[in-house]
Design brief:
This protein is of the alpha/beta class. The chain folds into three domains: 84 residues, Arc Repressor Mutant, subunit A; 103 residues, Periplasmic binding protein-like II (D-Maltodextrin-Binding Protein, domain 2), CATH 3.40.190.10; 99 residues, Periplasmic binding protein-like II (D-Maltodextrin-Binding Protein, domain 2, 3-Layer(aba) Sandwich), CATH 3.40.190. Helices cover 44% and strands 22% of the residues. The strands form four sheets. Strands 4-3-5-12-6 form a five-stranded mixed sheet, with helices on both faces.
Length: 297
């Protein structure tokens, strides 16, 4: 049965007359009368009976009118959902992120996305492994990654999103922790380092080693940690210093002091599949870009 016919039944039941329903539907009375007779013939039962100057639904007509109203409402909702999905205003999106992102600008960005796109089923997954995040986007497990060191692959599109300093997190009791000036890179040779295991985050590990090479110092690795919380706990316990994105200051770990590393920075990238047709990916990316522009304006 066509939705058009169901709308006729609902209109007649609500208006109580063919003439009123015809005006509402922008049809002629003969056309609507003919459509009603054909529908009653198809169903094998009368749907309306004359009552005074108007029409009242029969028992069968009342059942059809109630069901029709529900079907029409669902159809309208389905069409609205389709339009919203086409505009990138609804749907499901999985975003993976690095801890340095969520402690910095990404947290505010996700809050805005949640407020402005309430129909989006936004799924979040934290990761400490840059290679795994990029691979997950390629394989379709993630739609977007916000990460520091994306994989180089022609199938991936990347956009620089946010830059911030690298910071040396030191035990608060260490003499080097109390100088208010940014620390020179040579400081990396003056204190043991607490680092990511290379098998957990090879690119982050290599980035720290590259800083040491740039400063022409030999790093002394005293301990490893598989999360930011563990790294900072080891720093507070006196094992050494950790090189992390400056946004990790927001964790305010007791027993830890922070000094920016002079002449360094780290970059957060937005990463997505270059050929992804999902309009929701573009909507989220546009929101992130707008926030970036507001920050740099």
């Amino acid at each position: 049965m066509e939705l058009r016919l169901l709308s006729y039944v609902v209109a007649i039941a609500e208006e109580g007359s063919i003439s009123g329903a015809a005006r509402r539907l922008h049809l002629t009375q003969p056309t609507l009368s003919r459509q009603l007779r054909e529908l009653e013939r198809e169903l094998g039962t009368a749907l309306f009976t004359r009552e005074g100057r108007g029409l009242a639904p029969t028992a069968a007509g009342a059942v059809l009118a109630r069901r029709a109203a529900t079907v029409l409402a669902e159809a309208d909702a389905a069409m609205a959902d389709v339009r919203l999905a086409a505009q990138g205003m609804s749907g499901r999106l999985t975003l993976t992120f690095a801890g340095s992102g969520i402690n910095g600008p990404l947290g505010n960005a996700l809050g805005r996305i949640r407020r402005e796109l309430p129909r989006v089923d936004l799924r979040l997954e934290e990761s400490f492994n840059d290679a795994e995040m990029s691979t997950g986007v390629l394989e379709g497990r993630y739609d977007i990654a916000v990460q520091r060191l994306p994989m180089r692959d022609a199938r991936l599109a990347t956009q620089v999103w946010w830059r911030e300093p690298l910071t040396l997190f030191l035990p608060v009791s260490h003499p080097l922790a109390h100088d208010p000036e940014p620390a020179p890179l040579s400081i990396l040779g003056q204190i043991p380092l607490v680092v990511w295991p290379r098998d957990v985050s090879p690119r982050s590990y290599d980035e720290i080693i590259a800083l040491c090479h740039r400063a022409e110092v030999v790093p002394k690795i005293s301990a490893e940690g598989r999360s930011v919380q563990t790294l900072l706990a080891l720093v507070a316990a006196g094992f050494g210093a950790a090189v992390l994105a400056d946004s990790h200051r927001a964790l305010r770990r007791v027993g830890v002091a922070a000094r920016p590393l002079a002449g360094t920075s780290t970059t957060l990238h937005v990463v997505w599949r270059a050929a992804d047709p999902n309009p929701l990916v573009e909507r989220i990316r546009a929101t992130l870009t707008e926030l970036q522009h507001q920050h740099t304006a």
